[in-house]
Write a structure and sequence with these properties.
By secondary structure, the chain is α+β, with helices and mostly antiparallel strands. The chain contains 18 helices and 14 strands.
Length: 497
């Protein structure tokens, strides 16, 4: 193929009456090429029209085998029957490559891009919802955490919530928090075919769960469910899962529990709304959200009950068990049955209509939640258990006492910790933790240094004129006296005896 400039020179030579031979000599091109383009019968960029390929006998056999394979095997959920699985099924019978099979499958299915209609939503019309799993650092380890994602297609305001699981209570709570975050309820909500919401069927044939129907009625929205493998129907939220990974989870957030990570995630969502503008939108997200909020339906006066509820008996070790994790309670509840209410981030124990205790819900199952103050009375009665007491070793403590437990290297550090906790019965918690913090700054904190800082602050009271060091009788663990054994060893007898 020649260039356009050379073609122009050939046509000019023809126009000026030069011969083909002379033109070929001038342009140093073959006379066959000059002859092809001399009269303008061909253009330099035109392609040859090749005759259609004759389908080989082997191709017909392979196509028939592929058609039979796809008829006999159906795609179920995410277990897709693909060209690769078809090639693996027939490669022993037919000597054909994977790329060839892919081409044949395209021909067989007549695959071509399906046309979609661009969608546009009015303010307050819809919220799209989906789940995804994203990595985060919880308690120093990398975990895949379930993340609830929601978006308003009109303004593209986003919301994400980190959850311990994707079960109905967490799903319900996330929808409530999303409505609270956006400032109201949309007319419709579009969901994927989640088992938490759908009892059976998909798309327009979905049968809703009873609990979900009650939530729908309480918040007065209409739900719609996307058809299977129809990401175009909820394209905003499909893209949101990728966006949340980039906006709120890169780099990976770190926290001791899901609540700390959620605080980071929601802060990043707010920043995205405040400062971002989509390329194809006329105004920034924040401006469009302000336009949308007045058109949202108001939240119900009474929030929906989103917690999971069960009953548990308090064991003699002062704990009840929920979801493979033990939670402690004061000693007076031993042997009693409490009502357990679990939300995404809290686990509460209720007895006779009153809350007995509330715990932070750990993400890692089996990370037992002991509160050492629940065991102080028992520790006073059984001081020999202090060195091995799990509530003192692994119990949940304020950051200052957690640091004290880490920095103290004394053999009796758990006795010291117990004595500090006993001080908390009579001294204001803020004052006591401040003294522990000052002791920690020395690098080698101890119970004596905590008392020193309390006395330095002149902590006095209404406690009958006593100072801080007088408020508690220190727990003393009796240690065995071994001097008698030394005396016996020094008496007569050989060293072997």
């Amino acid at each position: 193929m020649i260039s356009t400039d050379v073609y122009a020179e050939i046509r000019q030579c023809c126009k000026n009456g030069l011969s083909m031979r002379k033109t070929a000599q001038m342009l140093k091109i073959s006379r066959h090429t000059i002859k092809r383009y001399w009269d303008g019968a061909h253009l330099p960029d035109e392609k040859n029209n090749y005759p259609p390929q004759v389908v080989s006998e082997q191709k017909e056999l392979v196509m028939a085998a592929l058609e039979k394979y796809f008829q006999e095997n159906q795609t179920i959920g995410k277990q897709r029957v693909t060209a690769k699985t078809a090639w693996e099924a027939i490669r022993e019978t037919y000597n054909v490559g994977e790329s060839t099979v892919r081409r044949y499958v395209q021909e067989l299915k007549g695959l071509c891009p399906e046309g979609f209609i661009p969608l546009s939503f009015e303010p307050g019309e819809m919220m799209q919802v989906d789940w995804c799993e994203i990595k985060a650092v919880v308690c120093g380890n990398v975990w895949k955490v379930p993340v609830f994602c929601a978006v308003l297609p009109y303004s593209y305001a986003i919301f994400a919530m980190v959850m311990p699981n994707m079960k109905m209570p967490c799903f319900t709570e996330a929808i409530m928090e999303a409505c609270q975050f956006f400032g109201g309820v949309t007319e419709r909500m579009l969901f994927d075919n989640l088992r938490t919401a759908v009892f059976s069927g998909v798309g327009k044939y979905a049968v809703k769960q009873e609990r979900f129907k009650l939530l729908e009625a309480h918040y007065a929205f209409k739900s719609a469910f996307a058809n299977r493998e129809a990401g175009n129907e909820k394209g905003c939220v499909e893209n949101l899962c990728k966006l949340i990974r980039q906006v709120a989870f890169t780099p990976m957030p770190r926290g001791q529990n899901l609540k700390e990570i959620q605080d980071h995630v929601i802060s990043r969502c707010r920043d995205y709304i405040r400062f971002h503008k989509l390329r194809d939108r006329p105004r920034p997200i924040a401006v469009m959200l302000d336009e949308e909020r007045p058109l949202l339906m108001p939240l119900p006066l009474k929030p929906f009950s989103a917690y999971a509820e069960t009953e548990a008996k308090v064991a003699s070790n002062l704990t009840f068990q929920y979801d493979s994790t033990k939670y402690s309670l004061p000693a007076e509840y031993i042997g009693k049955t409490v009502a357990v209410r679990a939300t995404s981030y809290r686990v509460e124990a209720w007895y006779r209509g009153e809350m007995a205790c509330s715990h932070t819900r750990p993400f890692i199952k089996g990370e037992h939640q002991y509160l050492p103050e629940h065991y102080l009375t028992l520790l006073e009665k059984r001081p020999r258990a202090i060195p091995n007491a799990a509530p003192l070793k692994y119990g949940v403590l304020p950051p200052e006492l957690e640091k004290f437990r880490k920095l103290n290297r004394d053999k009796d550090k758990y006795e010291q910790l117990a004595n500090i906790l006993l001080l908390g019965r009579h001294i204001d918690a803020e004052v006591l933790l401040s003294a522990v913090d000052w002791a920690n700054r020395t690098g080698t904190p101890s119970f004596d240094s905590v008392r020193f800082y309390l006395e330095a602050r002149n902590v006095e009271t209404s406690y009958r004129g006593k100072t801080a060091s007088d408020h508690v009788d220190a727990i003393v663990v009796d240690k065995p006296v071994l001097t008698d054994y030394d005396t016996l060893l020094m008496e007569g007898g050989s060293s072997d005896e």
